[in-house]
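thought: fold this chain, then report.
action: predict
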Amino acid sequence: MSIITISRGSYSRGKEVAEKLAERLRYECISREILIEASEQFNIPEIKLVRAIHDAPSILARFTYGKEKYIAYIRAALLSHVQSDNVVYHGNAGHFFLQKIPNVLKVRITAEIQNRVQEEMKRENIPAEKARHILEKDDEERRKWGLRLYGVDTWDSRLYDLVLHIETMSIDDGIDIIYYALQRPCFQSNPDHQKLLNNLALAARVEAALVEEFPTSKVTARDGDVFVDLKIPLSQTHVLAEKARAIAKVVTGVKDAKVSAIPLGIEE
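observation:
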């Protein structure tokens, strides 16, 4: 059993690769569904999540801790979804959220700008100049997101196990390469990998539960026990620590919660 993330630019045919690969593997293929799940689970209008991951990074600056909130909700939904394995994910930021899972095969699909322009022209019925402008702007915004939110350039090949250029290589060629890479033991799930994923998913759910009240909280988990680091005012340490612990303990899968309070103003 495996998990595959496919990062792509607009009209690079990455979506087609993902869907055909999932069909061949008989895996679930997901993308926007994660936004819908996050919207329903955390009672956030889907349009806000869509705008949050597609608009310029400066948009989130209008909201207090907007970045932390939207990342927490989307990450929690994605990690919970992929716990069952057998998934191809081609949505936003999967390669970031699953970076610490060693058996996840992370793929980047690229294509020539000329071919992408032709696809944009065809689908949107617009001239080449406008199509190129839209694609270049979209590419730049995605790079800004990676740098602003995660400090990493989405075009950095070190994020991926495979970078496939759909040009002389066909879509079927790319799928064959991914398929055979998946047969390697390093991309097969094992109990240790599953435990790591379960712990990350639980920590993400707890961070999502805390983010409204404690947007800078950091959570780790180990076999049902969660450990929360908070930066809070010294005068309210006990009250707020107990509040955070109460929030964390009601999250499904949490056996116990321990909170470490770091008074604001004290250097770590």
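thought: worth noting. The chain has two domains: 3-187, 213-263.
final: tokens above.
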